[in-house]
Design brief:
By secondary structure, the protein is mainly β. It has two helices and ten strands. The strands form three sheets. Strands 3, 4, 5, 8, 9 and 10 form a six-stranded antiparallel beta sheet that branches. Strands 1-2 form a two-stranded antiparallel ribbon. The radius of gyration is 23 Å and the shape is elongated.
Length: 190
């Protein structure tokens, strides 16, 4: 189909502007009604920065900043390592990446199997998850490797940063041998 012929067809109750950016995922015969089931709509609301990849990461709800992070925010990402990581003592918490751009955040979980289909564009279609948050992060390839490794062999903790925060670190990382090295009055966070 070309755009002219699509305009002349009934489009399964959809307006033409709702099909902007849609891709055909099924063939349609000439004069056949184009239905939404034969189209895949572009639902992406973000742009991946040049030189970056979009990487999805799931983080436990509280460790993922308890729902306070939104698309467009920046986070610091910490790795929590319980197994041996190089010659370092474990368990260990260490700053992995700083000022990571969050492309999207998903606090929902899919409906249970067997439930009736729900229009995902409606707010009631999503249920808040008390277990995990999925973040879509903009990462350079080398940073994606760190995140993928940590996803598979450790876990994450994310902190929300100020919009204009300078990069954090370097930090020494914390483990059982050094977590109490600093006196509380010297560790003042202000």
């Amino acid at each position: 189909y070309d755009l002219t012929s699509i305009r002349t067809l009934a489009v399964g109750g959809s307006r033409l502007n709702q099909l902007q950016g849609a891709e055909f995922v099924q063939g349609f015969a000439k004069e056949q009604q184009i239905t939404p089931s034969g189209l895949q709509l572009q639902t992406r609301t973000f742009v991946i920065p040049e030189g970056h990849e979009a990487v999805a990461v799931q983080i436990e709800f509280v460790a993922g900043a308890a729902g306070y992070v939104n698309a467009g925010d920046r986070i610091n990402l910490y790795g929590l390592y319980s197994g041996a990581a190089s010659n370092r003592t474990t368990p260990r918490a260490e700053l992995l990446l700083t000022n990571v751009e969050v492309l999207d955040v998903d606090l929902s979980i899919a409906p249970r199997r067997g439930s009736s289909p729900i229009d995902p564009s409606q707010p009631a279609a999503q249920r808040a998850s008390g277990a995990t948050v999925t973040y879509l992060l903009a990462l350079r390839t080398a940073d994606a490797e760190k995140v993928i490794f940590t996803t598979e062999f450790a876990s994450f903790y994310a902190t929300l940063t100020a919009d204009d925060a300078p990069p954090a670190g370097p930090t020494p990382g914390r483990d059982i041998e050094n977590v109490l090295d600093e006196e509380p009055n010297n560790a003042f966070n202000g």
